[in-house]
Amino acid sequence: MSKLSISNMNLWYSDFQALKNLNMEIRENEITAFIGPSGCGKSTFLKSLNRMNDLVPGCRIEGSLLLDGEDMYASDFDVNQLRKRVGMVFQHPNPFPMSIYDNIAYGPRTHGIKDKATLDEIVERSLKGAAIWDEVKDDLNKNALRISGGQQQRICIARALAVEPEVLLMDEPTSALDPISTAKIEDLVQELKGKYTIVMVTHNMQQAARVSDRTAFFLTGEIVEFDDTTDIFSNPKDKRTEDYVSGRFG
Ligand SMILES: Nc1ncnc2c1ncn2[C@@H]1O[C@H](COP(=O)(O)OP(=O)(O)OP(=O)(O)O)[C@@H](O)[C@H]1O
């Protein structure tokens, strides 16, 4: 069974239709990449996968979005639980203005974990999971805003891991980072897919080609093509995909 199963999905911002008849099966323990030109709906679709668009006035969604076969838009589906199961990492690293330790412990604390030894263990496990433990283990009380952008992004990934999600949504997670930090995040994402299902928006086609298992190409709110990443980049079936991946537009 797919981890996320989307069928006949349409989304409107007031009277503007931003997503049109989307259908997609997102498999467990794979990295799925969304590519396409600016404004084609990649972020809108990504945010729909943990109901972040609920917060946008005038946003309306039709169709079926299932997590492990359950309708995540059902009125009795617990949104807090959904956001725990489906975590999000944003384009610009956005650690909270508090210590590294408290950034990671924040989510578990809001879910009721108070015991110091348990929190210590979660903080260490999450920072190790985000491949940043060795760099910060002696500085856990340092303000998370006083480390590099690449480190901040890994803190944000650790913060997402701390509540033990099943799916990680990443919206251009490396676009604000230098090449070395980008390579670290790409390596990390590859490691994380052993435990998590990862969905990533990227502007960087080489990145999609390097890290993802399957790639969806979006254009004006539609999915033009969704296939194995190697096919999308070396054997696309749609002329528009071919034009985009070969750099003819976008
Ligand atoms: N809150 C909003 N209210 C109204 N329109 C919106 C809102 N957010 C996005 N849109 C519009 O929906 C369309 C899709 O935007 P979206 O941000 O999903 O595209 P994108 O492919 O992620 O673009 P980019 O690569 O530039 O981030 C665009 O036309 C955008 O202007």
Automatic annotation (TrEMBL):
<dbReference type="GO" id="GO:0016887">
    <property type="term" value="F:ATP hydrolysis activity"/>
</dbReference>
<dbReference type="GO" id="GO:0035435">
    <property type="term" value="P:phosphate ion transmembrane transport"/>
</dbReference>
<dbReference type="Pfam" id="PF00005">
    <property type="entry name" value="ABC_tran"/>
</dbReference>
<dbReference type="InterPro" id="IPR003439">
    <property type="entry name" value="ABC_transporter-like_ATP-bd"/>
</dbReference>
<keyword id="KW-0472">Membrane</keyword>
<dbReference type="InterPro" id="IPR003593">
    <property type="entry name" value="AAA+_ATPase"/>
</dbReference>
<keyword id="KW-0813">Transport</keyword>
<keyword id="KW-1278">Translocase</keyword>
<keyword id="KW-1003">Cell membrane</keyword>
<feature type="domain" description="ABC transporter">
    <location>
        <begin position="4"/>
        <end position="245"/>
    </location>
</feature>
<dbReference type="InterPro" id="IPR017871">
    <property type="entry name" value="ABC_transporter-like_CS"/>
</dbReference>
<dbReference type="GO" id="GO:0005315">
    <property type="term" value="F:phosphate transmembrane transporter activity"/>
</dbReference>
<comment type="function">
    <text>Part of the ABC transporter complex PstSACB involved in phosphate import. Responsible for energy coupling to the transport system.</text>
</comment>
<dbReference type="GO" id="GO:0005524">
    <property type="term" value="F:ATP binding"/>
</dbReference>
<protein>
    <submittedName>
        <fullName>Phosphate ABC transporter ATP-binding protein</fullName>
    </submittedName>
</protein>
<dbReference type="InterPro" id="IPR027417">
    <property type="entry name" value="P-loop_NTPase"/>
</dbReference>
<dbReference type="GO" id="GO:0005886">
    <property type="term" value="C:plasma membrane"/>
</dbReference>
<keyword id="KW-0067">ATP-binding</keyword>
<dbReference type="InterPro" id="IPR005670">
    <property type="entry name" value="PstB-like"/>
</dbReference>
<keyword id="KW-0592">Phosphate transport</keyword>
<keyword id="KW-0547">Nucleotide-binding</keyword>
